[in-house]
Amino acid sequence: MIAFYISGHGFGHASRSVTVINALRERRPGLPVLVCTNAPPTLITPSVTEPVTLRALECDTGLAQIDSLRADEAGSLRRAAAFHADLPDKARREADVLRAYGVRLVVGDIPPLAFAAAAAAGLKSVAVANFTWDWIYEGFPEYDVLIAGMRRYTRSEFIEPEVLRTGEWGPYLDRLLAKPAPIERPRVDGADVAAEMILEVGELTL
């Protein structure tokens, strides 16, 4: 069994992980997959080609948002700092879950908890990402004051930015799954979508 830990923030992490899950099952049909996330099941269940075991879990805190366009920077940092304050304990609990399910590999997109839990369980881990949360948070005011401890998990024990470029991974990250990227095939014909939206094919709508 493979366990996927997926950030519940937005749609991108879940949709990308579903694409990876489907690509893996093309190569190994029937592969058992455990998905740990607080993303809505409707983002995952209808899109996977075979059923997965869904386990509701807050893997990280992502961004707190004032509205659809504005981030609550201070609130994001407070939530992240509180969540990561006891990350070692969370990782040990998750390691017990991984053992109970018989997980052999952990994939994260991209919560630090995934890699900490894998390490605690003695398992290999794979990151699927184009950023890590501390890269986002460090641009916020008072990052070093409010969440300095997070760097311990996302830099020294998780991944160093310089290491990402050179290809030498930290102890919580065994391999970065970056290339080649699986591509999700469209399930609906473009003309059908246009018809449903009452658009003429070729019409541009902004």
Please give the structural blueprint.
Layout: E1 2-6, H1 12-27, E2 33-37, E3 53-56, H2 73-84, H3 87-101, E4 105-109, H4 112-121, E5 124-127, H5 133-137, H6 143-147, H7 150-156, H8 161-166, E6 175-176, H9 190-196
Parallel strand pairs: 1-2, 1-4, 2-3, 4-5, 5-6
Report what the structure shows.
The protein is α/β, with parallel strands linked by helices. It has a single domain (2-196), classed as Rossmann fold. It has helices spanning 12-27, 73-84, 87-101, 112-121, 133-137, 143-147, 150-156, 161-166, 190-196; strands spanning 2-6, 33-37, 53-56, 105-109, 124-127, 175-176. The longest helix has 16 residues, at 12-27. The protein is flat and about 50 Å long. The N and C termini lie far apart (44 Å).
Number of helices: 9
CATH superfamily label: Glycogen Phosphorylase B
Radius of gyration: 18 Å
Q: Roughly what is the average pLDDT, rounded to an integer?
A: 78
What is the CATH C level class, in words? Alpha Beta
* Range of helix content: 40-55%
The low-pLDDT segments are 155-180
| Largest sheet geometry | 6 strands, parallel
Strand content: 5-15%
Give the CA-CA distance, first to last residue. Answer: 44 Å
- Structural class by SSE content: alpha/beta
Descriptive labels:
206 residues, alpha/beta, Rossmann fold, six-stranded parallel β-sheet, 9 helices, 6 strands, 40% helix, 12% strand, flat
